[in-house]
């Protein structure tokens, strides 16, 4: 109860699980939270979905799958979201694509072309990292429509020449 005014919290790499996430979810004034490199999973992500004041959420490498990503779609104030190193697929990416205020998004997983296409609605993005997501030329075409991007990391995907050409729309 002493930390009820806390707005920023970094508990990355602390072996936090569901019980810890449930405790953190009671800190309702948080605007920035980093729980990367813990052992959260989907149930913990669901508990964190009550933190509606969050603008920054970092949950890298936490065994979060589509179900956990779907729970996060309630966090409509998010501008920064990192889910790198989780098992987010197309369904989870479609849920994340509803977070219209995002300016920075970091994902890895099996998004493939369908996941990349879902992200095409996030027109406020300035930074997008999609590493090792299985995205090909078709997905690159949609990402080429995100004209506000200033930083784009698409390393370890399957674009080929056609995908690289599709990105020319970013100029």
What descriptive keywords fit this protein?
about 20% strand; 7 strands; alpha/beta; single chain; about 170 residues
Secondary-structure map with pairings?
Blueprint: E1 8-10, H1 18-24, E2 32-34, H2 41-48, E3 56-58, H3 66-71, E4 80-88, H4 90-96, E5 104-109, H5 112-119, E6 127-131, H6 137-143, E7 151-153, H7 160-166
Parallel strand pairs: 1-2, 2-3, 3-4, 4-5, 5-6, 6-7
Helix pairs in contact: 1-2, 4-5, 5-6, 6-7
Describe the protein.
The protein has helices at residues 18-24, 41-48, 66-71, 90-96, 112-119, 137-143, 160-166, and strands spanning 8-10, 32-34, 56-58, 80-88, 104-109, 127-131, 151-153. The chain is 29% helix and 19% strand. By secondary structure, the protein is of the alpha/beta class. A seven-stranded parallel sheet has the order 1-2-3-4-5-6-7, with helices on one face. The radius of gyration is 16 Å and the shape is elongated.
Measured on Cα atoms, how large is the radius of gyration?
Answer: 16 Å
Order of helices and strands: EHEHEHEHEHEHEH
Total count of strands: 7
Q: Tell me, what's the shape?
A: elongated
